[in-house]
């Protein structure tokens, strides 16, 4: 079974010996190993590239490059769809303006995802591989559309038109290309998610996890703001246990 899937796997063949030993398809071995590597890399990322030790730029670059590498390792050239989808929607946001970009981004992102899914099923062999590259694309599509709507809320709508949740998630400035790709393709969520808000991700990268959540309506910082760095240990153990 494992031997038959070597030609079916579009990703790396480096772990083929493990696939043969475990009698599991190579694409599944690649996916599981990359998920475990992403978890271990996150520990290194937190300890050695902590916001107190390096700049947000470095954290963005490392998170993005590692995410792209893991995607290429698992899905091969199909991972280029992740970059293409993100790159085109960023161009749409820049060229169309904040008034209507959320609509165009929604239509394109869903349309591109549908195109990839249809061609995967009807043009290419549906049973060719079980590690479906459109799975990560679904997560990226959620991120693309949520960012577009949050930018529209933060830059095109008046404050009194937003509810409390929209005010919290609203993005007040256009993300840079690096920030946008880092959010969509970072190694911590590119393979299986989950989706988080753009503001939460940027706060994590910059080391200010409570800043935007402690801002009052008038932009003043709440005096009860928590400044201590939250520990992820409990949540990581809980997720691994389930």
Automatic annotation (TrEMBL):
Gene Ontology cellular-component terms listed: endoplasmic reticulum membrane
Topology of this chain in the membrane: Multi-pass membrane protein
Assigned keywords, A-Z: Acyltransferase, Endoplasmic reticulum, Membrane, Transferase, Transmembrane, Transmembrane helix
Gene Ontology biological process terms in this record: lipid modification
Parts of the chain that traverse the membrane: 29-49, 61-84, 104-123
Entry GO MF terms: acyltransferase activity
Primary subcellular site in the record, as a coarse category: endoplasmic reticulum
Keyword Transmembrane helix: yes
Compartment(s) where it occurs, according to its Swiss-Prot or TrEMBL record: Endoplasmic reticulum membrane
Region (Disordered): 218-242
UniProt-recorded name of the protein: Membrane-bound O-acyltransferase domain-containing protein 2-like
